[in-house]
Design brief:
four-stranded antiparallel beta sheet
């Protein structure tokens, strides 16, 4: 978010303040802005807008309001955001929205959403602030069995960005991106993931060239880091307690 080369985790508190905690050692949390209480979904989507370097390649955020309107908050490169831009309405139809992975292989991070019928749609990023995403394309059915959907970048070593999805039994599944906006058949990662309230694509936290995953444990407030292995057979190493956002309470993470 602050364009320092280290991934950040965002947390919203009860007052609507959005806080940024960097994966860089020794960095205290910092405010990324106020007034975020009006959103029921906040998702970091990577550097969605090609802006000639004016945003310093900082990550951007999309957020959905109570009326179902989706807004783009473009990163300002200083740890905050530029004035929001309206993407469009009707997004209340989606139970899950996930962004930050390049699903189409064009170098831009895309967005997917699963609606209440279980259909999965792809919104391909354009890089243009005037219309950040192309018209949606249906890319699958049967996604209603999942209560978490997370874009995690390329964690499996395939051709494109990947998705992980958690089902109602707490099983986590990997969908490897083919690089054309579609996915291979799902592959099991493992069980026991029902203890987490949110799963968040973390970017490359440990700078080993592989994408990682943050998992927030609702009962304790702890955040765990699952580092990526680059092997789709076992995409994550053993979890480790992370020090991001330690001691603070949030109602939403991104």
């Amino acid at each position: 978010i602050d364009a320092d080369g280290y991934p950040d985790l965002l947390g919203r508190d009860a007052s609507g303040t959005l806080w940024r905690d960097s994966a860089a050692d020794g960095r205290p949390r910092a405010s990324a802005g106020t007034g975020w209480q009006g959103y029921d979904k906040i998702e970091v989507v990577g550097d969605a807008i090609v802006s000639g370097g004016s945003d310093n390649y900082a990550a951007d955020v999309v957020a959905r309001d109570a009326a179902g309107v989706l807004w783009l908050h473009q990163g300002d490169g200083k740890g905050g955001f530029l004035p929001r831009t309206r993407i469009g309405g009707g997004w209340q139809t989606y139970d899950r929205i996930a962004g930050g992975s390049d699903f189409t292989g064009d170098g831009r991070a895309d967005l997917v959403g699963s609606d209440k019928t279980g259909a999965l749609y792809l919104y391909e990023a354009t890089g243009d602030i005037g219309y950040p995403y192309e018209t949606r394309k249906k890319i699958g059915d049967g996604w209603g069995v999942y209560n978490q959907l997370t874009a995690v970048g390329d964690i499996g070593g395939a051709a494109g960005g990947d998705l992980v999805a958690r089902d109602k039994d707490g099983l986590l599944w990997l969908y490897l991106g083919k690089g054309d906006g579609t996915f291979t058949a799902r592959k099991p990662i493992g069980g026991g993931w029902q203890v987490y309230g949110q799963l968040t694509g973390a970017g490359d936290v440990n700078h080993d060239g592989r994408a990682d995953l943050f998992a927030h444990e609702s009962a304790t407030g702890r955040v765990y880091l699952y580092t990526g292995t680059g092997d789709w057979h076992a995409p994550f190493a053993k979890k480790a307690v992370s020090d991001v956002h330690v001691g603070f309470t949030y109602d939403h993470l991104a």
